[in-house]
Amino acid sequence: MGNLADFIEQYLRNILITQRKVELQRRELAKMFRCAPSQINYVLETRFTFEKGYLVESKRGGGGFIRITLVPQDHSLDFFQTIESLIPEKLDAEVVEEVLEKLADRELLDSTDVVLCRELLEKYFSDLHGESAAILRAKLVKAIILVIGFKNRE
Questions:
Q1: Cα radius of gyration rounded to whole Å, the chain
Q2: C-alpha to C-alpha distance for 122 and 95, rounded to whole angstroms
Q3: What's the mean per-residue pLDDT of the chain?
Q4: Angle, nearest 10°, between helix axes 111-125 and 93-105?
Q5: What angle, 0 to 180 degrees and rounded to 10, lies between the N-to-C axes of helices 131-153 and 73-86?
Q6: Rounded to an integer, what distance in angstroms lies between the CA atom of residue 30 and that of residue 3?
Q7: Longest dimension (CA), the chain
Q8: Are 23 and 67 in contact (CB under 8 A)?
């Protein structure tokens, strides 16, 4: 017999077999399995990753939800690996332009996506400097591009 995380995972996978996307209340799911919401978070963070073929979106709070989308395998791994290979661990503000141009050239992002990335990075990172900022900037760029790029392929 499996542990609670296995049961939660199997429950969600069974739903995703019939639907490519599921939207649930974290609180209701925790109540159904008689566990803390943090146990639901653990399952989502470890068993429903992009690398494993899932896109998880989450909004916390009273009206919060979790949305899990099954990523077609032919897109997820190739797209993820491409993004990982194109974006370094640290990303200076000047290099962002080069990365965005490469992604546009490979048609992984369209011009609207590129503009959105530029605006987000300018708004939130223009005043940050140093190695920590470069690491954080690279992580944010990867996350933005993965979400935008995946949604464009749905």
A1: 18
A2: 13
A3: 79
A4: 170
A5: 150
A6: 15
A7: 53
A8: yes
Helices (H), the chain: 4-18, 26-33, 37-47, 73-86, 93-105, 111-125, 131-153
Residue 115, classed as helix, strand or coil, is: helix
Q: What is the mean pLDDT of residues 71-75?
A: 58
| Contacts of residue 79, Cβ cutoff 8 Å, sequence gap at least 6 | 108, 146, 149, 150, 153
d(CA 138, CA 133): 9
At residue 138 the predicted structure's pLDDT band, cuts being 50, 70 and 90, is confident
Collect all residues with Cβ–Cβ distance below 8 Å to 76 and sequence separation of at least 6.
Answer: 50, 51, 53, 150
Which whole number is the average pLDDT over 15-37? 89
Query: Rounded distance, CA 24 to CA 15, Å?
Result: 11
Are the C-beta atoms of residues 90 and 76 closer than 8 Å to each other?
A: no
pLDDT at position 73:
56
The model's pTM is: 0.51
